[in-house]
Design a protein that fits this description.
Elements (H helix, E strand, L loop, with lengths): L1 H4 L3 E2 L2 E2 L7 H27 L8 H12 L13 H36 L11 H15 L9 H20 E2 L2 E2 L1 H25 L2 H12 L7 H20 L1 H8 L2 H6 L4 H23 L5 H13 L3 H23 L10 H18 L11
Antiparallel strand pairs: 1-2, 3-4
Helix pairs in contact: 2-4, 2-14, 3-4, 4-9, 4-12, 4-13, 4-14, 5-6, 5-7, 5-8, 5-12, 6-7, 6-12, 9-12, 13-14, 13-15, 14-15
Length: about 375
Amino acid sequence: MTADLERPVSGNRPAPAASPARPRRSALERLLTPLLVLGIVVLLVVSGSTGPLQTTFLESLQIMAGHLIPGLPWMSDGSLTVSQDQAVWSFRLPRALLAGIAGASLALAGALLQANVRNPLAEPYILGVSAGAGVGAVLAIVAGSTAVGGLGLNASAFAGAAAATALVYLLAKQDGVIAPSRLILAGVALGSLLSAITNFLTITTDAQNVYSVLFFLLGSVSAATYPQLLPPGVALVAISVFAMFRSRALNAFLAGDETATALGVNVESLRRTLLLATALLTATTVAVCGGIGFVGLVVPHAARILVGSDHRRMLPVTIFGGALFLMLTDLLARTVAQPAEIPLGILTATVGAPFFLWLMRGNGAVRGGIKR
């Protein structure tokens, strides 16, 4: 009986028994994660070779290898210029890495939140965390750091996200219990209020600040530096490890609170932890990248459609798929309208929405938790 309860679930019902196509899906499950990792590595090199300063794919690969492996001859024989080295290593690689970390973080946050509230429409920004970060960042832009206690832009955005998370938690808690429906409603209401504050600050500020505000709210990794990778990177690694260790509990969680409790899961403790993990991933990402929507909705569903709802298989695909998706989006953002750059939030919706609708047309949508 226990084995039956631990099967992947969709909605509140156990998933149907494996279909005859199971061997083919098993082959896909074995190959998909390595292929995603390979795609990420290739995209890192392609991103390094793409930009106004001409650099070939091979030269980009040589520069990256040369910084990682000391003593390689091409780093000192004059075949690579200082400008090429600086462009690839100091500018293009950090932004590609930040895009990957942000995409993985938002996708993982979406998967954890959908399991937490058992709602396929849930995604990271539904908690109001992004809206809180927007208020903090806009205050820093339009009123200066003194308005937010001397904090810089990124720190102000993180502080706003943390404050929004605390408010949502307090509003969703009733009699010591966090109800999923109250969590969603509190997040939507608070997000709307904070967005209204952000819009008011935007339309009342000086014209020269409006572009900075809009570019932050729509998301960008154009100003990425290596130090900025640390906070979201640490959060991503720590929460990824936690989620994989708790994957069986997440599977039980999807079947409902009573079933999860019967299987020995401390439902309230896990729900609070998932809320904190989701907020931390979203806050650290939004603080350095701005508002990038849709990743946390489309990528977890795509992962479920491809490999099923079992979090032991779905989470790695979600994490690496999110990284690949946003890295590709960033590459498009800086190439399709050169010399201008398109904010990431615009492209994630433009590219992600049609792709998501296409996925839903197949029979695999039922496996992704989307009912007919």
